[in-house]
């Protein structure tokens, strides 16, 4: 059973958040349930991989909520497709604010997980918001690191300066009243993919595999001025002390960002599960790999919520 809900974002009440709440079998509104907030990848929406994981975890006894980020999907906010990582991090806490108002949610048993950049935003939210009692990540991406250092972690930070300049120029363009400047978050065309793994990102977002009308696959170029200097794991060594379960594919080009999170957190209760044969994208929706990830995440959340 699921329900679509809309609620004001507590960080900016001019923005209405759109989300899907999934209920476990035999749901009883008089009881209090543990809850899991599920955050979608950059360029994604709640109806894609975030919604899939939310549904699977609800089948394990949790109330789960998959939501569209501010400025994206069916959530409101202008300019459309803004990918400001600080706002996306705060969105996680805004969803938790909403959950704490629901009588059937136990506010002491709220966990959070995310996929790709959504996992990085979830980690950052957990550093700041200790209402999050347990964190799960799937194919984690620290979006700042990815844009600075490249998919293969082979670019020096300082060499990303042109991206900051491009973001600043985009802001000037937008302020002039011209059409909002945009950039792809995944390859928009098959021929744009630099490797086979990122070709799969094009396939996921732009073919029948999982394309969705509210997920155009691009972001505002002005977002670069926030993304390039952002570190989703900032101060994790001091403040990330919650239990952590990482899931990453053995052949994922992004695995280094899961390794970085694992190495940086202060948490003494941290686990790293490697899905053999899976790459970054296959953990989004390939049934056997999603099943393996959920079979790791569900017991983790049951133990810690």
What structural class results from the helix and strand content? alpha/beta
**What would CATH call the architecture?**
3-Layer(aba) Sandwich
| Tally of discrete structural domains | 1
Give the termini separation.
21 Å
Describe the strand arrangement of the main beta sheet, using strand numbers.
1-2-4-3-5-6-9-10
Identify the quaternary structure here.
Answer: single chain
* CATH homologous superfamily (4th level) name: Alpha/Beta hydrolase fold, catalytic domain
Q: Tell me the major beta sheet.
A: 8 strands, mixed
Average pLDDT number: 98
Q: Low-confidence parts lasting 5 or more residues at pLDDT below 50?
A: none
Question: What does this molecule look like?
Answer:
This protein is of the alpha/beta class. The chain has one domain (about 1-150, about 230-305): Rossmann fold (3-Layer(aba) Sandwich). About 35% of the residues lie in helices and about 20% in strands. It is built from 11 helices and 10 strands. It has helices at about 50-60, 85-100, 115-130, 145-150, 160-175, 195-205, 225, 235-240, 255-265, 280-285, 285-305; strands at about 1-10, 10-20, 35-40, 65, 105-115, 130-140, 180-185, 220, 245-250, 270-275. The chain has an 8-stranded mixed beta sheet with strand order 1-2-4-3-5-6-9-10, sandwiched between helices. Strands 7-8 form a two-stranded antiparallel sheet. β1 and β2 (about 10-20) form a beta hairpin. α2 (about 85-100) packs across α3. The radius of gyration is 18 Å and the shape is globular. The two termini are about 20 Å apart. The model has no long low-confidence stretch (mean pLDDT about 100).
């Amino acid at each position: 059973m699921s329900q679509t809900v809309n609620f004001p974002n507590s960080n900016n009440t001019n923005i209405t958040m759109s989300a899907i709440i999934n209920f476990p079998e035999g749901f009883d509104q008089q009881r209090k349930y543990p809850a899991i907030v599920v955050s979608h990848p950059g360029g994604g929406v709640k109806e894609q991989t975030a919604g899939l994981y939310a549904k699977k975890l609800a089948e394990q006894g949790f109330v789960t909520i998959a939501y569209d980020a501010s400025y994206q999907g069916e959530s409101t906010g202008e300019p459309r497709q803004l990918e400001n990582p600080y706002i996306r991090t705060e969105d996680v806490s805004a969803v938790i604010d909403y959950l704490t108002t629901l009588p059937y949610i136990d506010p002491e048993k709220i966990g959070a997980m995310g996929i790709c950049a959504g996992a990085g935003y979830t980690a950052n939210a957990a550093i700041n918001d200790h209402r999050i009692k347990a964190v799960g990540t799937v194919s984690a991406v620290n979006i700042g690191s990815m844009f600075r250092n490249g998919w293969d972690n082979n670019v020096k930070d300082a060499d990303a300066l042109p991206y900051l300049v491009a973001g600043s120029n985009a802001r000037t363009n937008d302020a002039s009243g011209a059409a909002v400047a945009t950039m792809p978050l995944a390859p928009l065309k098959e021929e744009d993919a630099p490797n086979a793994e990122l070709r799969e990102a094009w396939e996921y977002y732009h073919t029948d595999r999982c394309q969705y009308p509210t997920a155009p696959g691009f972001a505002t170029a002005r977002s670069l001025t926030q993304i390039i200097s952002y570190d989703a794991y900032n101060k994790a060594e001091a403040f990330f002390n919650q239990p952590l379960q990482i899931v990453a594919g053995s052949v994922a080009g992004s695995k280094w960002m899961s390794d970085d999170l694992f190495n940086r957190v202060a948490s003494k209760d941290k686990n790293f599960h490697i899905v053999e044969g899976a790459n970054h994208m296959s953990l989004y929706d390939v049934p056997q790999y999603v099943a393996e990830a959920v079979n790791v995440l569900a017991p983790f959340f049951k133990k810690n919520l």
